[in-house]
Amino acid sequence: KAIHKASTPQKTFKEIQEEIAGYT
Amino acid sequence: DVAKAIINLAVYGRAQNRSYERLAHLVDTVGPRLSGSKNLEEAIQLTYQSLKDSGLENVHLEPVKVPHWERGEESAMMVKPRLYKMAILGLGSSIGTPAEGITAEVLVVNSFDELQRRAIEAKGKIVVYNQPYISYATSVKYRVQGAVEAAKVGALASLIRSVASFSIYSPHTGNQKYQDGVTKIPTACITVEDAEMMSRIASHGTTIVVNLKMGAVNYPDTDSFNTVAEITGSRHPEQIVLVSGHLDSWDVGQGAMDDGGGAFISWEALSLIKDLGLRPKRTLRLVLWTAEEQGGVGASQYYQLHKVNISQYSLVMESDAGTYLPTGLQFTGSDKARSIMEEVMSLLRPLNITQVFTKGEGEDINFWIQAGVPGASLLDDLNKYFFFHHSHGDTMTALDPKQMNVAAAVWAVVSYVVADLDEMLPR
Q1: ipTM score of the complex?
Q2: By the CB < 8 Å criterion, does B424 face chain A?
Q3: Is the peptide bond before B381 cis (omega within 30 degrees of 0)?
Protein backbone atom coordinates (compact mmCIF):
# COMPACT_ATOMS: atom_id res chain seq x y z
CA LYS A 1 0.00 0.00 0.00
CA ALA A 2 2.77 2.38 0.94
CA ILE A 3 4.38 1.86 -2.46
CA HIS A 4 1.30 2.87 -4.37
CA LYS A 5 0.17 5.69 -2.14
CA ALA A 6 2.81 8.13 -3.26
CA SER A 7 2.71 7.18 -6.89
CA THR A 8 -0.84 7.62 -8.06
CA PRO A 9 -0.44 9.58 -11.31
CA GLN A 10 -2.51 12.73 -11.66
CA LYS A 11 -1.27 13.66 -15.10
CA THR A 12 -2.25 12.00 -18.34
CA PHE A 13 0.46 10.38 -20.42
CA LYS A 14 0.03 13.13 -22.99
CA GLU A 15 0.76 15.74 -20.33
CA ILE A 16 3.83 13.83 -19.12
CA GLN A 17 4.99 13.49 -22.73
CA GLU A 18 4.76 17.26 -23.17
CA GLU A 19 6.50 17.84 -19.87
CA ILE A 20 9.45 15.62 -20.88
CA ALA A 21 9.65 17.26 -24.30
CA GLY A 22 10.38 20.47 -22.42
CA TYR A 23 13.80 19.08 -21.42
CA THR A 24 14.91 18.47 -25.00
CA ASP B 1 17.53 22.79 -23.19
CA VAL B 2 18.47 20.81 -20.08
CA ALA B 3 19.25 17.53 -21.85
CA LYS B 4 21.31 19.34 -24.48
CA ALA B 5 23.20 21.26 -21.79
CA ILE B 6 24.05 18.05 -19.90
CA ILE B 7 25.19 16.30 -23.07
CA ASN B 8 27.32 19.25 -24.15
CA LEU B 9 28.99 19.60 -20.77
CA ALA B 10 29.68 15.87 -20.41
CA VAL B 11 30.75 15.03 -23.94
CA TYR B 12 32.13 18.20 -25.45
CA GLY B 13 32.56 20.68 -22.59
CA ARG B 14 34.94 21.19 -19.70
CA ALA B 15 33.62 18.14 -17.82
CA GLN B 16 34.72 15.71 -20.53
CA ASN B 17 37.00 12.91 -19.24
CA ARG B 18 36.42 13.97 -15.63
CA SER B 19 34.96 10.66 -14.46
CA TYR B 20 37.84 8.77 -16.12
CA GLU B 21 40.45 11.04 -14.54
CA ARG B 22 38.88 10.88 -11.08
CA LEU B 23 38.74 7.11 -11.31
CA ALA B 24 42.30 6.81 -12.58
CA HIS B 25 43.52 8.90 -9.67
CA LEU B 26 41.77 6.62 -7.20
CA VAL B 27 42.65 3.23 -8.64
CA ASP B 28 46.22 4.17 -9.50
CA THR B 29 46.65 5.33 -5.88
CA VAL B 30 44.74 2.64 -4.02
CA GLY B 31 44.54 -0.30 -6.41
CA PRO B 32 41.90 -3.04 -6.19
CA ARG B 33 39.40 -2.88 -3.33
CA LEU B 34 38.42 -6.25 -1.92
CA SER B 35 35.76 -6.40 0.78
CA GLY B 36 37.45 -6.36 4.18
CA SER B 37 40.71 -4.91 2.84
CA LYS B 38 42.54 -1.75 3.88
CA ASN B 39 42.51 -0.71 0.21
CA LEU B 40 38.72 -0.56 0.20
CA GLU B 41 38.55 1.46 3.36
CA GLU B 42 41.18 3.87 2.03
CA ALA B 43 39.20 4.22 -1.21
CA ILE B 44 36.01 4.91 0.73
CA GLN B 45 37.68 7.59 2.84
CA LEU B 46 39.31 9.24 -0.18
CA THR B 47 36.06 9.22 -2.14
CA TYR B 48 34.10 10.52 0.85
CA GLN B 49 36.50 13.47 1.15
CA SER B 50 36.39 14.14 -2.61
CA LEU B 51 32.59 14.13 -2.58
CA LYS B 52 32.63 16.67 0.26
CA ASP B 53 35.20 18.80 -1.54
CA SER B 54 33.11 18.72 -4.72
CA GLY B 55 30.28 20.50 -2.92
CA LEU B 56 27.65 17.76 -2.97
CA GLU B 57 25.15 17.75 -0.11
CA ASN B 58 24.53 15.39 2.79
CA VAL B 59 27.77 13.51 2.15
CA HIS B 60 28.02 10.74 4.70
CA LEU B 61 29.04 7.14 5.34
CA GLU B 62 26.61 4.43 6.45
CA PRO B 63 28.26 1.58 8.41
CA VAL B 64 28.11 -1.98 7.07
CA LYS B 65 29.60 -5.27 8.30
CA VAL B 66 31.30 -6.99 5.38
CA PRO B 67 33.05 -10.33 4.72
CA HIS B 68 36.82 -10.46 5.00
CA TRP B 69 38.50 -13.12 2.88
CA GLU B 70 42.12 -13.16 1.76
CA ARG B 71 43.46 -15.40 -0.98
CA GLY B 72 47.06 -15.75 0.24
CA GLU B 73 49.63 -17.54 -1.90
CA GLU B 74 48.22 -20.01 -4.40
CA SER B 75 49.44 -22.27 -7.18
CA ALA B 76 48.43 -25.23 -9.28
CA MET B 77 51.03 -27.54 -10.75
CA MET B 78 50.17 -30.30 -13.19
CA VAL B 79 52.54 -33.13 -12.29
CA LYS B 80 51.23 -35.74 -14.74
CA PRO B 81 51.44 -36.25 -17.70
CA ARG B 82 54.02 -33.43 -17.57
CA LEU B 83 55.21 -30.72 -15.23
CA TYR B 84 53.28 -27.56 -15.98
CA LYS B 85 52.40 -24.57 -13.82
CA MET B 86 48.85 -23.31 -14.36
CA ALA B 87 47.55 -19.81 -13.72
CA ILE B 88 44.75 -19.89 -11.14
CA LEU B 89 42.67 -17.50 -9.07
CA GLY B 90 41.07 -18.80 -5.89
CA LEU B 91 37.37 -18.02 -5.54
CA GLY B 92 36.04 -15.69 -2.90
CA SER B 93 35.15 -17.44 0.39
CA SER B 94 37.05 -20.60 -0.59
CA ILE B 95 38.92 -22.37 2.16
CA GLY B 96 42.63 -22.99 1.70
CA THR B 97 44.48 -26.27 1.28
CA PRO B 98 46.94 -27.83 3.73
CA ALA B 99 50.40 -26.26 3.42
CA GLU B 100 51.68 -29.12 1.26
CA GLY B 101 48.64 -28.72 -0.99
CA ILE B 102 46.29 -31.33 -2.35
CA THR B 103 47.77 -33.72 -4.88
CA ALA B 104 45.20 -35.81 -6.69
CA GLU B 105 44.09 -37.22 -9.99
CA VAL B 106 41.82 -35.02 -12.07
CA LEU B 107 38.32 -35.77 -13.34
CA VAL B 108 37.31 -33.43 -16.18
CA VAL B 109 33.60 -32.84 -16.79
CA ASN B 110 31.75 -30.47 -19.11
CA SER B 111 28.60 -30.07 -17.04
CA PHE B 112 26.91 -30.84 -13.75
CA ASP B 113 24.96 -33.57 -15.55
CA GLU B 114 28.18 -35.26 -16.59
CA LEU B 115 29.46 -34.98 -13.02
CA GLN B 116 26.35 -36.81 -11.82
CA ARG B 117 26.76 -39.52 -14.43
CA ARG B 118 30.40 -40.00 -13.42
CA ALA B 119 29.92 -39.43 -9.71
CA ILE B 120 31.56 -42.73 -8.79
CA GLU B 121 34.79 -41.57 -10.51
CA ALA B 122 34.96 -38.27 -8.62
CA LYS B 123 35.70 -39.60 -5.15
CA GLY B 124 39.15 -38.53 -3.96
CA LYS B 125 39.84 -36.49 -7.09
CA ILE B 126 40.11 -32.88 -8.14
CA VAL B 127 37.10 -32.09 -10.32
CA VAL B 128 37.86 -29.84 -13.30
CA TYR B 129 34.84 -28.17 -14.89
CA ASN B 130 35.21 -27.33 -18.58
CA GLN B 131 31.72 -25.90 -19.07
CA PRO B 132 31.19 -23.89 -22.26
CA TYR B 133 30.62 -20.15 -22.02
CA ILE B 134 27.02 -19.60 -23.04
CA SER B 135 26.28 -16.38 -21.20
CA TYR B 136 27.47 -15.03 -17.90
CA ALA B 137 24.14 -15.71 -16.23
CA THR B 138 24.10 -19.32 -17.46
CA SER B 139 27.74 -20.21 -16.96
CA VAL B 140 28.36 -18.49 -13.64
CA LYS B 141 26.53 -21.24 -11.75
CA TYR B 142 29.61 -23.43 -12.25
CA ARG B 143 31.75 -20.88 -10.44
CA VAL B 144 29.20 -20.37 -7.66
CA GLN B 145 28.12 -23.99 -7.09
CA GLY B 146 31.02 -25.96 -8.54
CA ALA B 147 32.71 -26.71 -5.22
CA VAL B 148 29.47 -27.81 -3.54
CA GLU B 149 28.51 -30.16 -6.38
CA ALA B 150 32.01 -31.63 -6.50
CA ALA B 151 32.09 -32.10 -2.72
CA LYS B 152 28.74 -33.91 -2.82
CA VAL B 153 30.35 -36.65 -4.91
CA GLY B 154 33.46 -36.88 -2.75
CA ALA B 155 35.92 -34.66 -4.60
CA LEU B 156 38.85 -33.09 -2.74
CA ALA B 157 38.88 -29.79 -4.63
CA SER B 158 37.44 -28.17 -7.74
CA LEU B 159 39.07 -26.19 -10.56
CA ILE B 160 36.62 -24.28 -12.70
CA ARG B 161 36.97 -22.88 -16.19
CA SER B 162 36.83 -19.10 -15.92
CA VAL B 163 33.50 -17.51 -16.76
CA ALA B 164 34.82 -15.36 -19.58
CA SER B 165 33.69 -14.45 -23.08
CA PHE B 166 37.29 -14.45 -24.36
CA SER B 167 40.66 -15.44 -22.97
CA ILE B 168 44.30 -14.65 -23.42
CA TYR B 169 45.25 -17.08 -20.66
CA SER B 170 43.47 -15.00 -18.04
CA PRO B 171 41.96 -16.61 -14.94
CA HIS B 172 38.85 -14.78 -13.66
CA THR B 173 37.94 -14.85 -9.98
CA GLY B 174 34.54 -14.27 -8.36
CA ASN B 175 32.43 -15.39 -5.47
CA GLN B 176 31.40 -18.96 -4.67
CA LYS B 177 29.04 -20.37 -2.06
CA TYR B 178 29.29 -23.31 0.27
CA GLN B 179 26.18 -25.15 1.41
CA ASP B 180 25.31 -26.16 4.94
CA GLY B 181 25.87 -29.87 5.46
CA VAL B 182 28.23 -30.22 2.49
CA THR B 183 31.97 -30.55 3.10
CA LYS B 184 33.87 -27.38 2.22
CA ILE B 185 36.58 -28.02 -0.38
CA PRO B 186 39.07 -25.55 -1.89
CA THR B 187 38.00 -24.09 -5.22
CA ALA B 188 39.66 -21.91 -7.82
CA CYS B 189 39.26 -20.78 -11.40
CA ILE B 190 41.65 -21.85 -14.12
CA THR B 191 42.01 -20.41 -17.61
CA VAL B 192 39.82 -21.38 -20.54
CA GLU B 193 42.99 -22.63 -22.22
CA ASP B 194 43.96 -24.99 -19.39
CA ALA B 195 40.43 -26.30 -18.94
CA GLU B 196 40.26 -27.17 -22.62
CA MET B 197 43.76 -28.67 -22.57
CA MET B 198 42.97 -30.96 -19.62
CA SER B 199 39.73 -31.95 -21.32
CA ARG B 200 41.66 -32.96 -24.44
CA ILE B 201 44.26 -34.89 -22.44
CA ALA B 202 41.58 -36.72 -20.46
CA SER B 203 39.66 -37.56 -23.63
CA HIS B 204 42.65 -39.65 -24.72
CA GLY B 205 42.44 -41.64 -21.51
CA THR B 206 45.62 -40.11 -20.10
CA THR B 207 45.82 -39.67 -16.34
CA ILE B 208 46.22 -36.09 -15.11
CA VAL B 209 47.54 -35.33 -11.62
CA VAL B 210 47.55 -31.83 -10.13
CA ASN B 211 49.02 -30.36 -6.97
CA LEU B 212 46.82 -27.48 -5.75
CA LYS B 213 48.00 -25.08 -3.06
CA MET B 214 45.80 -22.29 -1.72
CA GLY B 215 46.54 -20.09 1.27
CA ALA B 216 43.02 -18.64 1.42
CA VAL B 217 41.66 -17.63 4.82
CA ASN B 218 38.20 -16.44 5.92
CA TYR B 219 38.36 -13.88 8.73
CA PRO B 220 35.50 -12.49 10.86
CA ASP B 221 33.35 -9.78 9.26
CA THR B 222 34.82 -6.32 9.37
CA ASP B 223 33.63 -2.70 9.30
CA SER B 224 32.98 -0.90 6.05
CA PHE B 225 30.63 1.77 4.67
CA ASN B 226 28.21 2.66 1.91
CA THR B 227 29.13 6.13 0.69
CA VAL B 228 26.25 8.57 0.15
CA ALA B 229 25.98 12.06 -1.38
CA GLU B 230 23.00 14.05 -2.60
CA ILE B 231 21.58 16.96 -4.46
CA THR B 232 18.60 17.72 -2.27
CA GLY B 233 15.28 18.07 -4.03
CA SER B 234 13.73 21.53 -4.25
CA ARG B 235 10.07 20.54 -3.91
CA HIS B 236 9.97 16.94 -2.65
CA PRO B 237 13.29 16.45 -0.82
CA GLU B 238 11.94 13.31 0.84
CA GLN B 239 11.44 11.64 -2.55
CA ILE B 240 14.45 9.87 -4.03
CA VAL B 241 16.00 8.96 -7.36
CA LEU B 242 18.88 6.67 -6.44
CA VAL B 243 21.96 6.56 -8.70
CA SER B 244 24.60 3.98 -7.91
CA GLY B 245 27.60 1.78 -8.56
CA HIS B 246 29.83 -0.19 -6.20
CA LEU B 247 33.16 0.93 -4.84
CA ASP B 248 34.50 -2.49 -3.88
CA SER B 249 36.10 -4.85 -6.38
CA TRP B 250 38.02 -8.11 -6.51
CA ASP B 251 41.66 -8.14 -5.50
CA VAL B 252 43.04 -8.40 -9.03
CA GLY B 253 43.75 -5.74 -11.63
CA GLN B 254 42.49 -2.35 -10.49
CA GLY B 255 38.76 -2.92 -10.29
CA ALA B 256 38.56 -0.06 -12.79
CA MET B 257 35.82 -1.48 -14.98
CA ASP B 258 33.98 -3.49 -12.29
CA ASP B 259 32.81 -1.28 -10.92
CA GLY B 260 34.97 1.80 -10.74
CA GLY B 261 33.47 3.02 -14.01
CA GLY B 262 29.89 2.53 -12.84
CA ALA B 263 30.54 4.19 -9.49
CA PHE B 264 32.29 7.16 -11.03
CA ILE B 265 29.78 7.89 -13.82
CA SER B 266 27.15 7.87 -11.07
CA TRP B 267 29.17 10.47 -9.18
CA GLU B 268 29.67 12.30 -12.48
CA ALA B 269 25.92 12.44 -13.06
CA LEU B 270 25.49 14.47 -9.88
CA SER B 271 28.55 16.59 -10.69
CA LEU B 272 27.18 17.50 -14.13
CA ILE B 273 23.82 18.48 -12.68
CA LYS B 274 25.48 20.53 -9.96
CA ASP B 275 27.84 22.24 -12.41
CA LEU B 276 24.87 23.37 -14.48
CA GLY B 277 23.23 24.84 -11.39
CA LEU B 278 20.29 22.44 -11.68
CA ARG B 279 18.29 21.28 -8.70
CA PRO B 280 15.59 18.70 -9.44
CA LYS B 281 12.29 18.68 -7.59
CA ARG B 282 13.15 15.49 -5.73
CA THR B 283 16.45 14.36 -4.23
CA LEU B 284 19.13 12.74 -6.35
CA ARG B 285 20.96 10.34 -4.08
CA LEU B 286 24.31 8.85 -5.03
CA VAL B 287 25.12 5.58 -3.27
CA LEU B 288 28.49 3.90 -3.75
CA TRP B 289 27.91 0.42 -2.38
CA THR B 290 30.39 -1.66 -0.43
CA ALA B 291 30.89 -5.43 -0.71
CA GLU B 292 28.74 -5.91 -3.80
CA GLU B 293 31.02 -8.69 -4.97
CA GLN B 294 30.24 -10.77 -1.89
CA GLY B 295 26.54 -10.74 -2.77
CA GLY B 296 25.29 -7.17 -2.39
CA VAL B 297 26.18 -7.02 1.30
CA GLY B 298 26.21 -3.22 1.58
CA ALA B 299 23.07 -2.91 -0.52
CA SER B 300 21.24 -5.47 1.60
CA GLN B 301 21.98 -3.54 4.76
CA TYR B 302 21.01 -0.25 3.07
CA TYR B 303 17.70 -1.79 2.04
CA GLN B 304 16.98 -3.01 5.56
CA LEU B 305 17.73 0.46 6.91
CA HIS B 306 15.80 2.49 4.31
CA LYS B 307 12.95 0.26 3.12
CA VAL B 308 10.60 2.00 5.54
CA ASN B 309 10.71 4.87 3.01
CA ILE B 310 10.15 2.68 -0.04
CA SER B 311 7.08 4.64 -1.12
CA GLN B 312 9.35 7.66 -1.61
CA TYR B 313 11.68 5.98 -4.12
CA SER B 314 10.77 6.97 -7.66
CA LEU B 315 13.58 5.13 -9.46
CA VAL B 316 16.66 3.09 -8.50
CA MET B 317 19.56 3.03 -10.97
CA GLU B 318 22.77 1.02 -11.01
CA SER B 319 25.63 0.86 -13.49
CA ASP B 320 27.53 -2.39 -12.94
CA ALA B 321 27.92 -3.83 -16.42
CA GLY B 322 30.53 -1.53 -17.89
CA THR B 323 30.74 2.07 -19.03
CA TYR B 324 31.48 1.42 -22.67
CA LEU B 325 29.41 3.14 -25.35
CA PRO B 326 25.86 2.55 -24.09
CA THR B 327 23.38 0.77 -26.30
CA GLY B 328 20.52 1.96 -24.11
CA LEU B 329 18.83 1.57 -20.79
CA GLN B 330 17.50 -1.64 -19.28
CA PHE B 331 14.33 -0.97 -17.34
CA THR B 332 12.03 -2.90 -15.03
CA GLY B 333 8.70 -1.34 -14.16
CA SER B 334 5.10 -1.02 -15.15
CA ASP B 335 4.02 -0.39 -18.73
CA LYS B 336 3.12 3.18 -17.82
CA ALA B 337 6.51 3.77 -16.29
CA ARG B 338 8.20 2.19 -19.32
CA SER B 339 6.35 4.56 -21.64
CA ILE B 340 7.61 7.48 -19.59
CA MET B 341 11.17 6.12 -19.67
CA GLU B 342 10.95 5.83 -23.45
CA GLU B 343 10.05 9.51 -23.58
CA VAL B 344 12.94 10.35 -21.27
CA MET B 345 15.37 8.36 -23.42
CA SER B 346 14.17 10.24 -26.50
CA LEU B 347 15.99 13.23 -25.02
CA LEU B 348 19.22 11.38 -25.81
CA ARG B 349 18.60 11.43 -29.56
CA PRO B 350 21.63 13.72 -30.08
CA LEU B 351 23.77 10.79 -28.83
CA ASN B 352 21.72 8.25 -30.80
CA ILE B 353 21.10 6.29 -27.58
CA THR B 354 17.36 6.05 -27.14
CA GLN B 355 16.50 2.38 -26.63
CA VAL B 356 14.75 1.10 -23.52
CA PHE B 357 15.28 -2.61 -23.03
CA THR B 358 13.73 -5.02 -20.55
CA LYS B 359 15.30 -6.45 -17.39
CA GLY B 360 16.63 -3.42 -15.58
CA GLU B 361 18.65 -4.97 -12.78
CA GLY B 362 21.70 -4.85 -10.57
CA GLU B 363 22.88 -6.83 -7.57
CA ASP B 364 22.53 -3.74 -5.40
CA ILE B 365 19.17 -2.44 -6.64
CA ASN B 366 17.37 -5.75 -7.03
CA PHE B 367 16.09 -5.54 -3.45
CA TRP B 368 14.12 -2.44 -4.42
CA ILE B 369 13.04 -3.69 -7.84
CA GLN B 370 11.69 -6.92 -6.36
CA ALA B 371 9.70 -4.79 -3.92
CA GLY B 372 8.09 -2.87 -6.79
CA VAL B 373 10.30 0.17 -7.29
CA PRO B 374 11.11 0.93 -10.95
CA GLY B 375 14.73 0.07 -11.73
CA ALA B 376 17.17 0.98 -14.49
CA SER B 377 20.61 -0.21 -15.50
CA LEU B 378 23.03 0.89 -18.18
CA LEU B 379 23.49 -1.51 -21.07
CA ASP B 380 26.59 -1.66 -23.25
CA ASP B 381 28.78 -4.26 -24.96
CA LEU B 382 28.59 -7.07 -22.40
CA ASN B 383 30.80 -9.33 -24.46
CA LYS B 384 33.62 -6.84 -24.07
CA TYR B 385 32.81 -6.41 -20.39
CA PHE B 386 33.33 -10.10 -19.72
CA PHE B 387 36.75 -10.07 -21.42
CA PHE B 388 38.09 -8.23 -18.38
CA HIS B 389 35.61 -9.08 -15.62
CA HIS B 390 37.26 -10.16 -12.32
CA SER B 391 40.66 -10.56 -13.97
CA HIS B 392 44.08 -8.90 -13.82
CA GLY B 393 43.03 -7.16 -17.04
CA ASP B 394 40.45 -5.00 -15.26
CA THR B 395 42.55 -1.84 -15.33
CA MET B 396 42.12 1.73 -16.56
CA THR B 397 43.47 0.54 -19.91
CA ALA B 398 40.22 -1.40 -20.39
CA LEU B 399 38.25 1.87 -20.19
CA ASP B 400 37.76 4.63 -22.73
CA PRO B 401 37.31 8.17 -21.39
CA LYS B 402 35.17 9.26 -24.35
CA GLN B 403 32.80 6.35 -23.90
CA MET B 404 32.61 7.12 -20.19
CA ASN B 405 31.63 10.70 -21.08
CA VAL B 406 28.70 9.41 -23.11
CA ALA B 407 27.70 6.92 -20.42
CA ALA B 408 27.77 9.71 -17.83
CA ALA B 409 25.63 11.93 -20.06
CA VAL B 410 22.99 9.21 -20.41
CA TRP B 411 23.08 8.56 -16.67
CA ALA B 412 22.77 12.27 -15.83
CA VAL B 413 19.93 13.04 -18.23
CA VAL B 414 17.85 10.07 -17.10
CA SER B 415 18.39 10.61 -13.39
CA TYR B 416 17.83 14.36 -13.56
CA VAL B 417 14.69 14.30 -15.65
CA VAL B 418 13.05 11.52 -13.62
CA ALA B 419 13.94 13.39 -10.43
CA ASP B 420 12.53 16.63 -11.80
CA LEU B 421 9.21 15.40 -13.24
CA ASP B 422 6.14 16.75 -11.50
CA GLU B 423 5.17 13.21 -10.46
CA MET B 424 7.02 10.10 -9.36
CA LEU B 425 7.22 7.23 -11.83
CA PRO B 426 4.05 5.12 -11.58
CA ARG B 427 4.55 1.67 -10.06
Answers
A1: 0.89
A2: yes
A3: no
